[in-house]
Specification:
The protein is α+β, with helices and mostly antiparallel strands. About 30% of the residues lie in helices and about 30% in strands.
Length: about 280
């Protein structure tokens, strides 16, 4: 299904209306949340990057970013990486980021940044493990409260992802040269959270903010979206306690360097790996 996919920069304004449709298809955005086509087109015309993925001349995904700047210099801020539902989980989102990386390097940028939810394991695995992003910055309630039924009442905390395009760390991850963290994720002395199962969901029994080991593991639930649908109180508890954990360890000089999915017989265990 993903053979013969073409990736190219979107230069024709007539193609941009597809971006609105893909937002609805990919994320289920209500009309008021859709970014109108003229906004990404304006960022493209002013030096930003919009790249589409095409299957048989149909646009099935896109990545969109613009120029950002802070005290450390100029970078690309990547805002959307969206793929139609029919084509999700097939590596297209990953390849769109690779195409964005190529564009950035060709245009003399060394860094791409974006934000993502630390409890959405699918995105964590893509951003941190597969792409080699890192993070040491936590933003409370970044998008304020979303008003849809699924997210209402749950604050929109986000990690800031730093993708240092020319680093050995990124190159190692893109070449699948991963380190083995089994001794970390299975070592109780290196766990930030002590967890247990509560019906079909993972619950937090204990939060340890006193670790000083060089590398530690912070577990997160594998099914947070389902948790938000079925046990919102527990989902909020996860948000508040992991917020406290991330902020505490970031302040102590730790950074997220990997994300591990450990498949077990009847479940998947998920861990952020933090290193000081």
């Amino acid at each position: 299904m993903t053979d013969n996919i073409v990736y190219r920069e979107l230069t024709d304004f007539n193609e941009y209306y597809h971006l609105e449709d893909i937002q609805v298809d990919s994320w289920g955005f209500p009309e008021r949340e859709i970014v109108p086509k003229r906004i990404p087109y304006a960022t493209y015309k002013s030096g930003g990057v919009v790249i589409g993925a095409f299957k048989d001349e149909q646009m099935i995904g896109y990545v969109w970013g613009w120029l950002g700047r802070n005290q450390e210099g100029t970078y690309i801020y990547s805002h959307h990486n969206a793929v139609r539902k029919e084509y999700q989980n097939k590596g297209i989102g990953f390849q769109l980021k690779i195409e964005q990386k190529k564009w950035a390097i060709n245009n003399k940028f060394d860094l791409i940044k974006w934000v993502f939810d630390p409890l959405q394991t699918k995105n964590c695995h893509l951003n941190i493990h597969k792409l080699g992003g890192t993070s040491n910055t936590y933003k409370n309630n970044y998008w304020l409260e979303l008003k849809d039924k699924l997210n209402e009442g749950i604050e929109t905390d986000r990690l800031v992802c730093n993708w240092f395009l020319k680093s050995n760390h990124v190159n190692n991850h893109l070449n699948k040269q991963f380190k083995d963290y089994k001794s970390i994720i299975f070592g109780s002395d290196k766990q930030v959270l002590k967890t247990k199962m509560k019906d079909t969901f993972l619950d937090i029994e204990e939060l340890n903010l006193e670790h000083d080991e060089p590398i530690i593991a912070l577990e997160v639930p594998s099914n947070y979206i389902k948790m938000k649908k079925n046990d919102k109180k527990l989902a909020i508890d996860w948000r508040m306690k992991t917020r406290k954990a991330f902020q505490n360890y970031f302040e102590q000089g730790y950074a997220i360097i990997d994300f591990v999915l450990e498949k077990q017989e009847n479940s998947i265990k998920c861990f952020h790996i933090l290193k000081r």
